[in-house]
Structure formats: C-alpha cells, structure tokens
C-alpha cells in the first residue's frame, strides 16, 4: 500500500453478467438452435458499488453508493501528484472534503476480464470459479481484483411467440455472473474468502435480492481498515469465516497474501531461475495456463521473488480472447493467456518468452536460437540448494497431528503454516538477489549519484557477463540503484549490513584501492588457484554453510491480531456511525491495555485509529493519532497520507489547529519536508563517464570522486597540481584518460598477484600488496620488491621466497646513492634501525619513484605512531598509489618531480619537527576519524559511550561497547569501541547540529538537535524510530533521574532543556510530558540533577531549582565578564567538595563557587597557555578542560588541561588536536574522549591516571 491511498479495504464491487434482454432473446431462440451449442453472450456491467466516506449526510442515505452501468465509476482517493484526467464531483460533497480526488476509471474492458473465455450460458449447473486481476494506470499505481464466477438458474416462465402464448417449455438454463472486488491492496486470499462468504448468500437469495446482497457486502468491506506495517493484523467475521488481513512486514515491503510456493509446485528450480532472469533482463513474457486463476497468482509470486527490485513495465496477467493483440507490443511486458492460444501467440510473434504453467516449461517463440539468460552460476547453485530444504506440502505437516473439528481453527493452522513457508521463500529469493548484487554499493558514489558500470562488470565472472550487461541497462535495475543511493533501509540493505565482516567494514571505510588481502589470497590458494567466488565451491557442489546465514532466519516476530466489531444489520448510515464509534472505543481499550514499553504495538493502534478517524471525517483527531507515531514508532508514519489530510483541512479546522501546538508543529514539519523534497528533486543515477572537455579544479575534484579513486578534497587538489606539471591549471581529457587507465590497470594487476604459501605465512592477514617492482638486483639477492601498508620485502626469484627488508616504523634512513660510473644508475638505500647492514637495490628508472614512496610511507607511519592514529598510514598509502599513477601516465623526466607534490606527509615531516610532549605521548591511547567516509572533515560536536554487555538473552544483539559521534552536519556515526572499527556509517538526523546525547539502558540513545527535535535511536536496528517534538527551541542538554536507586531507566524520568529556557520532564516508558516550565535566562545550555535539585546553567546565570521549577538560588554572571562581553559556557558540579566550577567563552579563567554560600565571591583560577575554555568535565578528582592554545612550530590549536581539583594545579597540558576541542566525554572514569572542530574533525582517546 502506498501512502495517500484509501485506508479501507474496498475500492469497488462490480457485478457483471448478461443483460435480461439478451437472456430473453437467447431463451426465445432455443427452439431454433436444434441442439447446437449455445452462443456466447457479451458480458456487461450490471451493478457498481463503491464506498462513500460521507458521514455528514442524511442518516437515511446508504453508506455505499450504487451506480447504474451507464454512470462513471470513480475511485475515492488519488495521490496529489497524479495528473490524469479527473472526473470532478460537487465540491460541497464530503468525499472531496476528505482529502479525496476522484479518479476516472474506465470499466469498458472489465467485463471481458471477468469473463476472459466469454460468457457462456449452460444447460447444466457448473461449479463456481475464482480468478484474479491486476490493473495498472499510466503512473504505475496498481489495483487488484478478485473475481467470483457463479451460475444461477434462469427464471422459468411462459413463452410467447407473435404475441400468443405457446405450449413450448424451454429447458432449464444456467447463467453465469461475476462479482469483482477491487482493492488497492493485494489481499488475494482474504478477498477470495470474503467472496466465498458472499457466495453462500447469493446461492439462496432470489434474483431480485442479489443487488441488495452485493450492496451490503460492499458496505461491510468499505469499513474494514487495512493494517499498518508491522506486528498488527486485522481480523473480521464474515459468516461463517474469520478473515485475517496480514500486515506488511515493514514500510518498504508489499503485502503478501497468497501462496508463494505455487511456482515451486509448477516449475523446477531451473525454470524458476530462468523466469527470474527473464524478468530481471526485461524480456517480453507470456504465461499460459488452462486455469485462469494460476496466471495472476504465479505472476504475482515472481514479482515478490524479485523484491526489492520492481517490475517497471506493463503487467497484464490475464488477456481475454479479444485482447491477444496486446502481445504484439514492442516494449517489455508480462502478460497471461489461456493455454488454447499458445500456438497462435507463438506463431505470430518473435522473441517472446513462452511460459507454460501447466507443463512447467520455458521456451522462446523465435525461429532463430534465442538464449534465455542464465542467473549467475554461484547464486543459482545456492538457490537450488536452499530450495531442496523447503517443505512444500501441507499434508505432510499434518501426518503427526490430530484433526481439529473447528473450521476456523483448521484455517488458522493452514494460514500459520503458509506464513512460515512464505517467509522461508522470501528469504531464499532475497538471498538470491543479494548474491547477485551484494557488492553493487562498492561501485556507487553517493555524493554525486554515480554508478561505475564498467568497473562493476569487470569484476563479474566471464560466464555471467551477458546476464549483467542486460540487467544493468534496465529501468528495474536503475530504480534499484536509486534506492541504494537514497540509502533506503529495506531488507536488502539490512542483509548487506549484517553480512559485512569487520575487515570489510574497515576496508570500505578507509581503503578504496580494491587490493586483495593476504587472507583472501590464502583462501584463493586453498581453492587450487580458482578465483574466490561468493560461496565455497567444490566442482559443482555448493556448501550451504558458506552462504549468508541471516536470510534463512525464519523466526517471526510476535503478531497481535485486532478483531473488528461484528458488522451491524442493516448497514445503513446510522448503523455505520455506531459501528465506527464501537470500533474507536475498542481501539481505545486496546491502546490503554498496551504496556508503555511495547511502543511498537502502540504505534500500530494509533495508526489504525488515525485511519478510522480519517474515515469518520475527524481530521484533527486523525492528525493527533498520527502525531503520536513520533513518540511510538516514526517508521510507520504515513507521510503522504498526512500530507493529503493536511491539505483537506477546512477553514474552521485550521483555526483549531492554531490552538493546538502539537498539531501546529506537525503541520509545519509536513510542509517544510514537502518544500525540502521539492528543492531536492534530483533523483537520477548517472553512469561514470570519462571527461570529454578540459577540466578546471572544481570539475576535476568532482570527476575523481565520481570515479571512486579518492574522496578527500585536499588530496584531490594536490593530485590536480601534480598532473598540472605544465602549469595550464586544467586537465585535458587525454591526460585524465591515461591516468584513469593506469590506475585501473594497476588495480587489475593487483588482483592477479599470487604469492607462494611460505610468503603468505610471513604476512599479516589484513596486509595487501600495493606495489611490486620489476625484477631487480639487490644486496639481498635478485627478486621483486613488494610494498604493503606495513612493510617492504623481497620476493626472490628462482626458488620463490620471502626476505624481509624492513617495516616502515623501523626505518632509520632512506636515500639514493650516487650512480657508479660503470653502472650509470642510482641505487636506493634503506637503513633499518634494528640492523647493521644497509639494504641496497638497483631499481634503475624506478629508483626515484621508490625513494619517494618509501619516504612517504615512512613519514605516514611515524605520524601514525606519534598521534596514535592509523589513518595517517592509509592517507600516506593513498598518496603513494597516486604518485605511482602520476608517474605512469606522465612518462616524462619531470614525472617524479610532479609526483612529489603528493608526498604530503614527508613534506610535513621535513617542515615541522615531530615533537610530541611526554605527557601527551603517554596519555594519548588512540585517535579515530569519524569523517573517514566523507569528502571533508566534519566537526565532532557530541560524544557518547554505551557500555557492552557480557550476557544478553538475544543472540543477535551486538554485545560490544559502542562510541556514538554526533557530527556537525546532523549525522551520527557509530564505532565498535572494542576494535575502533566503524560499525554504523551515517545515521541521518536532519541537517542541523547535534548538541547532546544520552543513553537509556541498552535500548535507546536520545539525541538533542539544534532543530529542536529529540531523536531516539533504537540501538538494535540503528534506526531513528521515535521523535519528540514538544520543544520549540534548540535542544542543549539532558539529564536522567531514576525514581528509585536501583531502578532501570524504564522507571525513570528525563529532563530536557532548550536554549529558549524551556525544561520538559518526560516519563520514559510512555514518552509523555509529565510537566514543563520556563526559566527566564539568556540561552539555557545545561541541566544536571543532584540530591533532588536541578542545576541549570545559562549564559548569564546559574540556577538551583526544585524539581517543579521553583528557584532556590541564582548565581549571576560576574560584572567583570559582562564588561568584556563574556558569558558562562560550562558548569561542573563537585558535590563531594561542595563546589561549582564555571568557565567562560573567551576568557582563560575559572570561577569556583561555594555550594552552601553562592553569594560568596568565587575563587578565580587562571589557566596557562589558554585562549578560552570550550568544554569541561569532572573525572575522578580531576577536571579536564578543553581550550584553545598552541605555540611555536606546533600545529596544535586545541589543548586539554588536566587540573587537580584539590591543589588546583595543572597536572598535564595535552596537545590534543589541530583545531579547537569541541567536546569531552568520560568513559567510566578510565578514559576521556575528546572531539575537535571541523578543521581536523578527529576523536582522541586518552588514558586517565
């Protein structure tokens, strides 16, 4: 279900059959037929019943409108952006007021689709039959139909001929009728059950009563709401059946209400894979069967198999005999015909894929050989292996079970079995797609929305190339790429994240060079030289354990079923009103019975009640229910539906909205997001293309980033200078093409490097060989010099072996010796600090380049060790690879000189002495870069550490501690604090600065933003599933108050404050506002709780308050600070010393106040080598102060002063960052984390004494 569509199950109920005039004519002509077959009659629309959500009409009016066959039928709601021709109605009608735009629907073809084989009157009673329809409009919006065909005896009567009564008595005839139920939602099984219930009544009612029965049936379905995504299903009674509407699994997934194993009963695995391949390559496909019902259901199963990829072309599963010309369409399509038309369709059309469901075959209509594309081999083998484990026959499941006598209990058992099987099949099909496209994201540039098609294809196996070449050109794959670039968190994306190893996460974050690691080489060598594939292969066998485990997890989350009230009789308008009141009352009881901890279920009830209120024209109540989704589960918030609802508000309702601040805020958010989406309408995907015109610096930066070579802007700027050896200040296309070609050839060569097993054993698993020289003569023998990110070593020739040259951290000196007259070549000399002998290599023309590269890696290693930051090595390695490419493409005498412009770390080593103060070197433990996946460094504005867990009931929960980093662009990145590897890249929380974080138990992280919203992150899903929007100003701080000393956070309350002086107290389980108050101050920026009192810090004062907001006392800003335009910026409490420590924005001084006598003048403490305090925290008996400073040759701008709280002496002066220290955070009093502003944008981890 798409947002903005009708909330009810029914879109229309249409009765189709032969007109009475035609039946009379047929009856009169029976005597003339003389035993010949009865002629086919033309079916016509007899009745159209559609829901009217009009609840302000007269109570005597019906709840379902019945139109005559000549009237135009209209669907109740259409998206605002739809632009077909509209059939307008009276603007005063409530249907228009209810955010409904009536869309014209042509019913001319419907009779033929309901009787695709023709309407045949028979002389014998026939059994009823069902089949299914799919309707698609020009915008791709789909409706779904279920058709019941049944037979009724014609009414007997006296026959007349020429006005006279005859004695001839005609035989009994049986006339077929069809009831077609159309819905926006593919509830095939549920709607079939509904029609089965209706059939009981149609069989026993009189002909004159049939219209009333159909009308009442339509009225019932019109008030059935469709469940929201998630764990809540809806059940209703249509005697004698209990009918369940299953919900979608999540917001992005379609409804699954059919038997997904049907294709497995009709086709073997080979044919199933062929059909999937034909769909993905967008062939012209026609399904055939003798059973009309199979056509739609089988086609719909395949549509679900390829999810999240979506078919973009015509889908017409059923063609009547008058529609066969449709298969001559030149575009891709999926259509269905009766098996009797197989030969006709095959003979008259070329290049059609013919799929015979009855025989389970797939063929082509072309006279010439046409190769049906094959699914990639490894993925296909895994799929076949998984399919063998499916238990497809329900009867086998009943062999060891007792038989239940209750019909609905039997149906429930069958439904539960089918849902489990459906889940298994969905997981297997998702795994198939994942194994085909699992590394697509490696070739995407998210900033510029570029997919590097050529490079992706180069990495495919040769036998799979033809499949991928066809798929990559299709709109279906293009749409899939759009969703990846939009970072859509669907099941494919979740599977992709869950299958990343720590090594892959690290390499994705820091290394874009695509070199195989030593571990990957070991795997490759263990497979007898065969290239590593997705799975462990042994000839043609695939081990299931080598494939991802997550897709096969069929454990279903607990499902709650909400039963609707019994339908009243008769279903007139007054009873409908009572029914809706009963339904809302039942929802109210369900909401009150749900535990506040079960916010997910609560959100579904709010969603459901919002839909009912919307139907009932209670728009403000509906908006209020949807507003509650922000606090319970924003993942199911129906944005388009709410947008439609907002636009439908009447004038008096808008006045009421202005009086309700929460609704006013909701409408503002909806409108601002709509405006932002209009501004950000660029949703295209580009293929990477080499430039065709000279590029200036800005264009060059963009092109390099699109190519995936380098992200960092500063590095690309240095590359631009290196390639601009002639000083033209532009890069011509031919030069870029040569550079790009050399880079990619070097990457490809690295993939083919095969090291002997004895060499692999000497190297670390995560090392990669980045550079390999020609065979040269060295002081250690003849061989090739190899460079990894850690060392250089010699691969000896003859008997291949390993000779260690040096690790980069052990280098003492690197130089080029003067050429000897006889050799006329310089040689490279490397002195290892751990050895006496000097390594010397006669590298000939490569000597200067190797000298440059080794020095850059040496400098990067030194900087990494001194700063405890491994990123320096990775940056140096990137520079080395770029140097190699520059020299390779320039091929001039000055190429090495040009490449030297990329030796950034070596230049720093020579210009700035690497002098790390002793205290800094000892205290600094590690540095990490949270902006490593971004084009530019970002300011680290807020940090939070969540401890790990030794035990947890759920095995799928990550028990490692985590470091949460809020960046200046409204993004959050999460590190695994055990390995400092990037765990979650970029959780987007708007575009504003993030100011504060707080954790609640192990389940939630609260984040306060400059945009006045509190974002709540679910630590399991790593998604923002709730938002609190009651604040009107910038969020600045949180504090947690446990209501009992040993209580969990679920029995606690949170205080949040905003810059405008508002303090809100939240009940944690329900997220309801317990109370709020306003403080009169200049920018409220901190809040703490101690001994039941609140301590609030503002720019102009510090206040001690009672929990209700009453002021106990107040400290004003000292006059001296007022005179110099300084303000309080940090407040730290020392309860054990009865002290309050305060700092100031641009003043190197602290004030220490007395708890018990705040009027008493404070102690003043001057801070040495400090230009102003930026942050301050208490750690044990120390105070850590972040400030600006730096002197001499040091590039350090951000300092950390460590003060003893008793002696007030500076114990340490730490040179922390190259930009100001933005934030400090204490980790269990064992470590302190510091984050810097955007010039550096790094996080440092410090030891605490």
Automatic annotation (TrEMBL):
Molecular function GO labels: guanyl-nucleotide exchange factor activity
Pfam families: dDENN, DENN, TPR_DENND3, uDENN, WD40
Annotated Gene Ontology cellular component terms: cytoplasmic vesicle
Localisation per UniProt entry: Cytoplasm
Record region (Disordered): 506-549
UDENN domain segment(s): 60-491
GO biological process, one term: regulation of Rab protein signal transduction
The keyword Repeat is annotated on this UniProt entry: yes
InterPro entries, alphabetized: cDENN_dom, dDENN_dom, DENN_C, DENN_Domain_GEFs, Quinoprotein_ADH-like_sf, TPR_DENND3, Tripartite_DENN, uDENN_dom
Feature: compositional bias, Polar residues: 531-549
Alphabetically ordered keywords of this record: Cytoplasm, Guanine-nucleotide releasing factor, Phosphoprotein, Repeat, WD repeat
Assembly and oligomerization: Forms oligomers. Interacts with 6 of the 7 known isoforms of 14-3-3 proteins.
Official protein name in the record: DENN domain-containing protein 3
Origin organism lineage: Eukaryota, Metazoa, Chordata, Craniata, Vertebrata
């Amino acid at each position: 279900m798409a947002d903005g569509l009708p909330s009810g199950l029914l879109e229309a109920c249409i009765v189709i059959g032969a007109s009475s005039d035609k039946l009379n004519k047929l009856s009169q002509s029976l005597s003339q037929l003389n035993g010949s077959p009865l002629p086919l009659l033309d079916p016509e629309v007899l009745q159209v019943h559609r829901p009217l959500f009009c609840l302000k009409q007269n109570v005597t009016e019906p709840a379902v409108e019945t139109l005559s066959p000549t009237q135009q039928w209209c669907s109740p709601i259409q998206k605002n952006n739809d632009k077909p021709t509209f059939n307008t109605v009276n603007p005063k009608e409530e249907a228009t007021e209810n955010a409904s735009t009536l869309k014209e629907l042509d019913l001319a073809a419907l009779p033929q689709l309901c009787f695709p084989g023709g309407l045949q009157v028979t002389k014998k009673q026939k059994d009823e039959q069902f089949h299914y329809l799919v309707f698609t409009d020009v915008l791709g919006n789909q409706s779904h139909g279920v058709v019941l065909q049944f037979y009724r005896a014609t009414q007997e009567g006296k026959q007349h001929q020429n006005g006279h009564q005859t004695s001839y008595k005609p035989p009994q005839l049986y006339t077929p009728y069809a009831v077609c139920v159309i819905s926006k939602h593919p509830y095939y099984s549920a709607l079939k059950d509904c029609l089965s219930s209706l059939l009981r009544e149609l069989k026993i009612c009189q002909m004159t009563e049939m219209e009333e029965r159909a009308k009442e049936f339509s009225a019932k379905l019109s008030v059935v709401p469709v469940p929201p995504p998630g764990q809540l299903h809806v059940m209703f009674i249509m005697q004698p059946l209990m009918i369940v509407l299953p919900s979608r699994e999540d917001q992005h997934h379609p409804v699954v209400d059919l038997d997904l194993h049907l294709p497995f009963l009709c086709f073997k695995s080979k044919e199933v894979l062929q059909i999937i391949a034909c769909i993905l390559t967008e062939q012209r496909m026609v399904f055939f069967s003798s059973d009309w019902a199979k056509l739609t259901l089988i086609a719909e199963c395949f549509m679900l198999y390829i999810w999240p990829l979506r078919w973009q072309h015509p889908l017409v599963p059923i063609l009547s005999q008058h529609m066969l010309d449709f298969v001559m369409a030149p575009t891709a399509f999926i259509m269905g015909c009766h098996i009797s038309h197989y030969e006709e369709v095959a003979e008259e059309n070329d290049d059609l894929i013919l799929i015979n469901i009855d025989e389970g075959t797939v063929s082509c209509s072309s006279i010439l050989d046409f190769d049906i594309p094959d699914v990639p081999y490894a993925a296909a083998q895994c799929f076949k292996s998984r399919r063998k484990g499916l238990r497809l026959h329900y009867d086998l499941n009943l062999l060891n079970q007792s038989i239940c006598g209750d019909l609905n209990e039997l149906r429930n058992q069958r439904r539960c079995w089918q849902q489990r099987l459906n889940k298994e099949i969905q997981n297997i099909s998702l795994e198939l797609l994942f194994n085909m496209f699992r590394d697509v994201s490696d070739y995407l540039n998210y900033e510029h929305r570029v997919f590097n098609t050529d490079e992706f294809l180069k990495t495919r196996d040769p036998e799979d190339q033809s499949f991928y070449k066809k798929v990559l050109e299709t709109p279906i794959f293009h749409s899939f790429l759009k969703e990846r670039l939009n970072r859509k968190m669907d099941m494919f994306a979740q599977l992709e994240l869950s299958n990343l190893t720590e090594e892959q996460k690290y390499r994705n974050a820091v290394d874009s060079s695509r070199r195989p690691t030593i571990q990957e080489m070991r795997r490759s060598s263990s497979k007898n030289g065969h290239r590593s594939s997705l799975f462990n292969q042994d000839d043609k066998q695939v081990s299931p354990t080598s494939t991802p485990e997550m897709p096969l997890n069929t454990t279903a989350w607990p499902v709650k079923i909400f039963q609707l009230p019994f339908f009243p009789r008769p279903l007139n308008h007054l009873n409908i009103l009572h029914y809706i009141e009963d339904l809302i009352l039942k929802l109210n009881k369900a909401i009150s019975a749900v535990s506040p901890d079960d916010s997910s279920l609560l959100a579904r009830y709010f969603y459901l009640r919002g839909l009912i209120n919307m139907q009932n024209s209670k728009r403000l109540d509906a908006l209020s229910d949807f507003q509650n989704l922000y606090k319970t589960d924003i993942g199911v918030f129906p944005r388009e539906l709410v947008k439609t609802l907002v636009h439908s508000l009447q004038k008096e309702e808008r006045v009421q909205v202005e009086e309700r601040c929460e609704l006013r805020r909701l409408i503002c958010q909806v409108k601002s997001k709509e405006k932002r989406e209009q501004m950000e309408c660029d949703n295209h995907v580009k293929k990477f293309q080499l430039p065709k015109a000279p590029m200036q610096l800005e264009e060059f930066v963009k092109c390099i980033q699109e190519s995936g070579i380098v992200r960092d802007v500063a590095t690309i700027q240095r590359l631009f200078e290196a390639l601009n050896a002639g000083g033209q200040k532009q890069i011509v296309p031919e030069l870029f093409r040569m550079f790009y070609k050399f880079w990619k050839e070097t990457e490809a060569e690295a993939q083919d490097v095969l090291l002997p097993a004895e060499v692999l054993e000497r190297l670390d698993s995560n090392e990669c060989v980045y550079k390999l020289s020609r065979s040269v003569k060295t002081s250690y023998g003849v061989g090739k010099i190899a460079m990894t990110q850690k060392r250089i070593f010699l691969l000896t020739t003859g008997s291949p072996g390993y000779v260690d040259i040096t690790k980069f951290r052990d280098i003492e000196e690197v130089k080029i010796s003067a050429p000897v007259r006889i050799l006329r070549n310089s040689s490279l000399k490397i002195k290892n600090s751990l050895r006496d002998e000097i390594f010397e290599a006669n590298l000939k023309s490569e000597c200067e380049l190797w000298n440059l590269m080794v020095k850059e890696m040496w400098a990067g290693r030194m900087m990494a060790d001194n700063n405890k930051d491994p990123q320096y090595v990775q940056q140096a390695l990137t520079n080395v690879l770029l140097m190699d490419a520059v020299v390779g493409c320039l091929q001039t005498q000055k190429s090495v000189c040009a490449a030297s412009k990329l030796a950034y770390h070596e230049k720093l080593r020579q210009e700035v002495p690497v002098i790390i103060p002793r205290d800094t070197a000892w205290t600094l433990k590690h540095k990490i870069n949270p902006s490593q996946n971004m084009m530019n460094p970002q300011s680290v504005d807020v940090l939070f550490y969540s401890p790990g867990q030794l035990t947890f009931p759920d095995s799928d929960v990550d028990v490692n501690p985590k470091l949460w980093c809020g960046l200046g662009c409204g993004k959050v990145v999460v590190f695994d604090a055990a390995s400092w590897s990037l765990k979650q890249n970029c959780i987007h929380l708007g575009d504003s600065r993030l100011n504060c974080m707080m954790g609640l138990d192990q389940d939630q992280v609260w984040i306060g933003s400059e945009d006045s919203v509190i974002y709540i992150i679910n630590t399991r899903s790593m998604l923002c599933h709730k938002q609190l929007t009651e604040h009107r100003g910038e969020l600045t701080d949180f504090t947690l108050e446990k209501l009992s000393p040993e209580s969990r956070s679920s029995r606690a309350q949170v205080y949040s404050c905003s810059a405008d002086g508002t303090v809100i107290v939240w009940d944690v389980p329900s997220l309801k506002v317990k109370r709020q108050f306003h403080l009169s101050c200049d920018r409220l920026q901190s809040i703490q709780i101690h001994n039941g009192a609140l301590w609030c810090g503002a720019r102009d004062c510090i206040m001690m308050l009672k929990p209700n907001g009453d002021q106990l006392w107040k400290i004003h800003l000292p006059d001296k600070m007022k005179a110099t335009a300084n303000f309080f910026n940090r407040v730290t409490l020392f309860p054990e010393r009865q002290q309050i420590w305060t700092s100031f924005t641009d003043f190197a001084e602290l004030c220490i106040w007395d708890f018990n006598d705040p009027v008493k003048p404070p102690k003043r403490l001057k801070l040495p080598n400090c230009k102003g305090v930026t942050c301050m925290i208490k750690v044990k008996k120390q105070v850590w102060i972040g400030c600006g400073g730096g002197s001499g040759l040091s590039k350090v701008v951000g300092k950390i002063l460590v003060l003893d709280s008793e002696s007030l002496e500076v114990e340490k002066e730490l040179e922390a960052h190259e930009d100001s220290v933005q934030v400090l955070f204490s980790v269990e009093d064992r470590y302190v984390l510091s984050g810097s502003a955007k010039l550096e944008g790094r996080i440092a981890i410090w030891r605490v004494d």
